[in-house]
Automatic annotation (TrEMBL), chain A:
CDD domains on file: PBP2_Bug_TTT
Keyword Signal: yes
Descriptive protein name: Tripartite tricarboxylate transporter substrate binding protein
InterPro entries cross-referenced by the UniProt entry: BUG (IPR005064), Bug_dom1 (IPR042100)
Source organism of the structure: Ancylobacter koreensis
Keywords for the protein's UniProt record, in alphabetical order: Signal
Signal peptide: 1-26
Domain of life, source organism: Bacteria
Biological classification of the source: Bacteria, Pseudomonadati, Pseudomonadota, Alphaproteobacteria, Hyphomicrobiales
TrEMBL record, chain B:
Residue span(s) of domain DUF112: 17-436
Membrane-spanning parts: 6-25, 32-50, 56-79, 106-129, 135-156, 163-180, 200-218, 319-340, 352-375, 387-403, 431-448, 460-484
Taxon lineage: Bacteria, Pseudomonadati, Pseudomonadota, Alphaproteobacteria, Hyphomicrobiales
Source organism, top-level taxon: Bacteria
PANTHER family listed in its UniProt record: TRICARBOXYLIC TRANSPORT PROTEIN (PTHR35342:SF5)
InterPro entries: DUF112_TM
Protein name: Tripartite tricarboxylate transporter permease
Keywords: Membrane, Transmembrane, Transmembrane helix
Keyword presence, Glycosyltransferase: no
Regions annotated as coiled coil: none
Signal sequence bounds: none
Matching Pfam families: TctA
Species: Ancylobacter koreensis
Length: 325, 502
């Protein structure tokens, strides 16, 4: 209880401080049409997406003249959250934190409100997608893997997270680009895929750097390539796939979207806030630890990005018979 | 030595004691309410832990996990409503005992079994984490597949002399398990355009439907409302030490399966509870009592799910890979406090780890004490006139189901499953094979297909892995043996019936 009481006092004290400093700060903050905003998240509390959105809301509260809170609307792989967002007014009182899942869900299950019925607002980050092998693996680079796969098709086994996700797609693209045959084994999540590499079922795994951090630190696994535009700040010695002669970049984005009729003021406020948020020391510490790559895109660029991404996903699903035209 | 100091510090620290007690009490209450699964009970509290000391935060969440795994068995035994997937196996014999007026005894068994399971799990967690974390690596797709087959091989003996009907019910269950995203290609199967079905039919909805909704329908069909006047025990009755000793076999079985399921991701409490129930029956001296109020049938799943609650922390702490969906929330709490679980956690933050262990010890103790206090009033509550009770249960089930996702769709789904369960029961199909197949179907299918990917479609893969070979051989033996016995019995009885036939 001691901690609880201390905690309450701390909360009260900070509240008082905010109340005292409030008027002065409000003037510096970016104007926003409403005073409180709900940011919805399709995954449950404590999930990666949830932690991301809570950090964003926290940083936004310091820059925008409104108070944002996160609400988890789970169910239907995001279909429920999208339906709720689609019905909301465009005054910025309801926004949603998204990753590629919302596009994929829209394409795979054709929910009542799909990604094309919603308005991208800003993109904040790209995830650092990397390829890892076991510490004692013979493969030192992605090239080694390709050569092994060329010598013996299907001899290299790749562990990926959820079936039909971005990671599987990346591997299929890799096979098409290099004309090789890899065996892709999907799991129930990134953690299972990692175990698979540790116990030798998979020869390599592809995943987000943040998820793999503790095994990398313990030297149980070793990164061999990054699917990013440039080298990742926390892995300065890790060459990108491009540097290894494979022209591929995985764009696992994280952004904020609103309903279709979201007002221009809301968009303007977020476009102004995100660059400031990315320089906020507390927020910066958080995203650098998670190896997220700041990749701010204002509304029109993000919209074009999503259109392009959606078209690419649709083609992939069609090509692999996951949906019918 | 420093570690002992941390443990002592944890045992005597007030915030940790309070976190353990608050957690276990909330867990028991939340766990007893249908719809508030362990994961939800924990995630509701998660935001409050942001400002807490990391050890106290982890103890709070761990204690909720422990309390909730136990709490689920209260409605399972008393009103045939499994509040979570992991308490569903308890329903079968626990509710049978309640109907015989032995509800207090069943709750006593599950409380003591759960406490023992908790302490054994804690012992494994605190002493053998490094060693046991390697066991998680033994389980490759072929081994998971074989484990699932072993579980499902019990269908023949669960079907009580009606193997064909049992198999039909099992196949129905497997069909339900195929709904959702294909485990290998990601194609949507049998979702009929409903995004709610993308993740499959949740196990908890199947359990609530088959057990609770079905029971309500059956009770509603009864013509007379005469209250049964049999003397019901209204007090909690703890098993004697002698009884516990006589129940050692099911408890050992439960510890083994609880540990395996806790260590390996994707399994979780419901698989552990059902596997222990099955094996307890298989190794029992009185298997015929199962389903009719067997004490072994209560203590086995109840011990198992509490073992899981603790052993699931082993991969969470040592790999950063949660053994169950619930342990994933604990993982999130670690991350929020800037702790990176993984091989280095024990050396970088020993104080947090060892204080967590002592907090969990306190939580286990607390669970036992709280159980003693609150169970008798709850038993009294459940022994009210049936008409009130039924309406109450109905409200509890549907509000609970609705609260999981706030989705109307889930209400229709649970009713549909309830109708399936009702038909199975009215047509005298055994329903346990159905439930078992739903629980294990995904694991079997996903791992079968993953295994075949490894060898490009060659079934030899199941013979290359020692665990898979052993488990498959055992399953084959278990399937063939009862059939052979039945065959011999039939020949004998037909010979006895027609002794003088030429």
């Amino acid at each position: 209880m001691a901690t609880r009481i201390a905690c309450t006092f701390a909360a009260l004290a900070s509240l008082a401080a905010v109340a005292a400093a409030g008027p002065a700060l409000a003037a510096d903050k970016i104007a926003y049409p409403v005073t409180t905003g709900t940011m919805i998240m399709q995954s449950s509390p404590g999930s990666g997406g949830d932690l991301f959105l809570r950090a964003v809301a926290d940083a936004a509260n310091r820059q925008i003249g409104a108070n944002f809170a996160v609400e988890n609307v789970t169910g239907g792989s995001g279909a429920k959250a999208m339906a709720l967002l689609g019905k909301s007014p465009g005054d910025g009182s309801m926004l949603m934190g998204v990753s590629p899942t919302y596009v994929n869900t829209s394409l795979l299950s054709k929910p009542p409100v799909s990604y094309t019925d919603l308005q991208p607002i800003v993109r904040l980050f790209l995830d650092s997608v990397i390829v890892v092998v076991r510490e004692d693996s013979p493969y030192k680079t992605l090239k080694d893997v390709i050569e092994a796969a060329k010598k013996a098709p299907h001899s290299v086994k790749v562990a990926v997270g959820e079936p039909g996700g971005l990671e599987t797609q990346t591997m299929i693209e890799l096979m098409q680009k290099t004309g090789t045959q890899l065996t892709v084994i999907s799991h129930d999540g990134g953690g299972d895929a990692l175990l698979s590499v540790l116990n030798g079922t998979g020869d390599m795994a592809i995943g987000e750097a943040a998820e793999l951090k503790s095994q990398l630190d313990a030297k149980q696994i070793r990164p061999i390539a990054a699917y990013t535009e440039a080298r990742i700040a926390t892995f300065p010695d890790l060459p990108t796939a491009r540097e290894q002669g494979i022209d591929m970049v995985v764009q696992k984005f994280r952004g904020i979207i609103g309903p279709k009729n979201v007002s221009p003021e809301v968009i303007k406020a977020w476009e102004a806030a995100v660059p400031k948020m990315l320089n906020d020391p507390a927020f910066k510490k958080w995203y650098e630890e998670g190896a997220l790559i700041p990749a701010f895109q204002p509304h029109d660029q993000f919209e074009a990005f999503i259109d392009n991404f959606g078209a690419k996903q649709k083609q992939f699903f069609l090509d692999n018979n996951m949906i019918k035209g | 030595m420093t570690n002992l100091y941390y443990i002592w510090e944890g045992l005597t620290s007030l915030p940790i004691l309070l976190a353990a007690m608050a957690g276990v009490l909330w867990g028991m209450c939340g766990g007893a309410l249908p719809g508030i699964s362990t994961a939800i009970a924990m995630s509701l509290v998660l935001p409050f832990t942001y400002g807490m000391d990391p050890s106290a935060a982890l103890v709070l969440l761990g204690a909720i996990y422990i309390g909730s795994e136990y709490g689920g068995s209260i409605p399972a035994i008393l009103i045939r409503t499994p509040a979570s997937g992991s308490s569903a196996a308890t329903v079968v014999d626990g509710y049978a005992m309640q109907r015989q007026g032995r509800g207090g005894e069943a709750l006593g068994l599950s409380l003591v079994g759960g406490t023992i399971g908790g302490f054994v799990g804690l012992l494994l967690l605190s002493l053998l984490t490094q060693q046991l974390s390697k066991v998680a690596l033994w389980f490759t797709p072929p081994a998971y597949f074989a484990l699932g087959i072993l579980g499902i091989s019990v269908i023949a003996s669960l079907s009580e002399r009606n193997v064909i009907r049992g198999l039909i019910a099992g196949v129905l269950g497997l069909m339900v398990a195929t709904i959702g995203t294909d485990p290998v290609s990601g194609v949507m199967r049998f979702t009929f355009g409903y995004p709610e079905l993308m993740g499959g039919v949740p196990v908890i909805i199947v359990m609530m439907g088959v057990f609770a909704v079905t029971e309500l329908m059956i009770q509603a069909r009864e013509r007379d409302y005469s209250e049964d006047v049999t003397e019901r025990s209204t007090r909690l009755k703890l098993p004697s030490l002698k009884k516990l000793w006589s129940l050692r076999v099911p408890q050992i079985i439960a510890i083994v399966f609880g540990t395996i399921e806790g260590l390996t991701p994707g399994g979780g409490g419901s698989i552990a509870a059902f596997m222990s129930y099955n094996e307890a029956k298989r190794w029992s001296k009185e298997p015929e009592k199962f389903g009719k109020g067997s004490e072994e049938g209560v203590i086995a799943p109840e011990t198992a799910n509490n073992v899981v609650a603790l052993t699931a922390l082993i991969p969470t702490l040592s790999f950063g890979i949660p053994g169950t969906a619930t342990a994933a929330i604990l993982l999130a709490a670690l991350l929020i406090h800037g702790l990176h679980p993984g091989p280095n956690l024990f050396t970088s933050h020993p104080e947090v780890v060892y204080q967590l262990f002592s907090g969990l010890f306190l939580a286990n103790l607390g669970m036992f004490v709280f159980g003693l206090i609150i169970l008798s009033p709850i038993i009294w509550l459940v022994n009210r006139p049936r008409a009130y009770l039924r309406a109450g249960i109905f409200g509890l089930i549907f509000s609970g189901i609705y609260s999981v996702n706030g989705s109307e769709f889930d209400l229709y789904l649970v009713m549909a499953i309830g109708v399936v369960g009702y038909l199975l029961r009215s047509l005298r199909f055994p329903f346990l094979p159905f439930v078992l197949a739903v629980v294990l179907g995904y694991m079997i299918e996903a791992n079968y297909r993953r295994s075949l990917l490894i060898t490009n479609g060659d079934h030899i893969v199941f013979l290359q892995n020692p665990i898979s070979v052993c488990l498959l051989a055992l399953s084959a033996l278990f399937i063939v043996l009862p059939l052979y016995r039945q065959f011999r019995q039939r020949r004998r009885s037909s010979q006895a019936a027609h002794p003088q036939q030429p």
